[in-house]
Please model this.
Amino acid sequence: MKKYLVLIILFFAMASCAEKNKKELVSSNATQKPFVWENASIYFLLTDRFYNADTTNDVNFNRTKTTAKLRGFEGGDIKGITQKIKEGYFTDLGINAIWLTPVVEQIHGIVNEGSGPTYGFHGYWTKDWTALDPNYGTAADLKNLVEVAHKNNIRIVLDAVINHTGPVTEVDKVWPSDWVRTSPQCTYKNYASTTSCTLVKNLPDVKTESTVAVEVPKQLAEKWKAEGRYKQEMATLDAFFKRTGYPRTPRYYIIKWLTDYISEFGIDGYRADTVKHLEESVWHTFKTECNYAFAKWKKDNPHKVLDDNAFYLVGEVYNYGVWSGQDFDFGDKKVNYFNNGFNSLINFEFKWNAAQKTYEELFSRYSNILNNQLKGFGTLNYISSHDDGQPFDKTRKKPFESATKLLLSPGTSQVYYGDESARPLIVKGANGDANLRSNMNWDAIANNAKTNAILTHWQKLGRFRNNHVSVGAGVHKMISQQPYVFQRTYTKDNYTDAVVIGLDLNKGPKEIKVASVFTDGMLLTDAYSGLEATVTNGKIKLDSPFTIVLLESKK
Model:
């Protein structure tokens, strides 16, 4: 009898412990929700194409020649981004980080490339790393953007281009030969033919591998003198090289110029352009100096510090996919960019996975990879982008599915401007990547009911994701296949978070199993419909007109 009594006591003790653990699992409101880059929703926009809040800066440097369709400056600026933050546009979308295309001064001339006459509206044709392009705005505008973003719990990620200068034009001369090479053009057959070459014709490649000290290019020095800041720029260069002990080779100049934006403005991260076209050691040094500059800014601005997160660095290693784990294979050499400073890499594989796999196949695959091969690092998923001519949904026929797959997948989400409003990716009269870079469709958002229905779906999923670290950074587990219900759980230090999500459900009354996460008697809210229900016998019942449920516990 005593034996059975002991077993009964043990059973109830274990049951009580299980219930306690489950309650602890969903006690996400007991501790302040942390910001975790692995769960971030990063809004990627072309500064020139998002919103024009200041028409006085639309024309500079006599950039008045006629361009091909969507290949000139359209007027978007930093003030426009700031205005939309203030209006709550990003907060309503659940966006907690914004990635801007480069805002440094672009070449002044026009380039007659294959798709027609083009100006450097996109930001990737640098003329001067130390100055902002007036078409985008001023240093004061950028400072204000960062401050307003931070007040709204939004991080700012700028775009770092180290690999090349802008093209050569009638008014933009080529940099000295000890700074750049103009040939050969890359063939991508191996490591050398990917790094020591020009990406395309007339895009001078910076000699980042050089060990030979160089002077500031003559045309840049003359520009600084004309602007009255030569002595100041040279003094800061002298101080940088004295502090670091680096040789005055091309890579270190550019690293210095880019990290100044961190220590001066307090940006939170960089998206690194054309990563595989530079020696990996460049990125290791770049991250070291980014960390130094970020620490300096935090020390100088203690009242503005958002959290204790380190500086964020995400890289564009073209054609990298999570299937390859941490290594990128050049054929004759494998490189681990995560070991060279990167927190995350853009995932070029996601759009294919989203098209070919079911929800469960997609979610479980990414959860397994991120919690094993890539544990401690991240991946940035996207469905469309500024230079990917084969997006997930080119004709915008699947905007709801696009949101569901992107925002509910494990990993960091990249929302490309207009994904949330089905901005057309095919524009009459445009050629090539100009189709992907049209002006933001604000008129459709203001006047089109169908566009607003799409936007509302993105907003609901985005806010739910932002409210729950477990969605992007947690562990995925299917609860039932029919109906399709799954859980996401996240635990780190003293913080825990858990949610239950159902997709492709029947409209109307539905019964959802939640016992693996929520206990009987708990009041749950469906963040999609706004309905509430109490857990009974490990289930909840909802009479929702939607086919999706986003279940969270409200303490």
Remarks:
- The chain is about 30% helix and 20% strand.
- The longest strand covers residues 484-492.
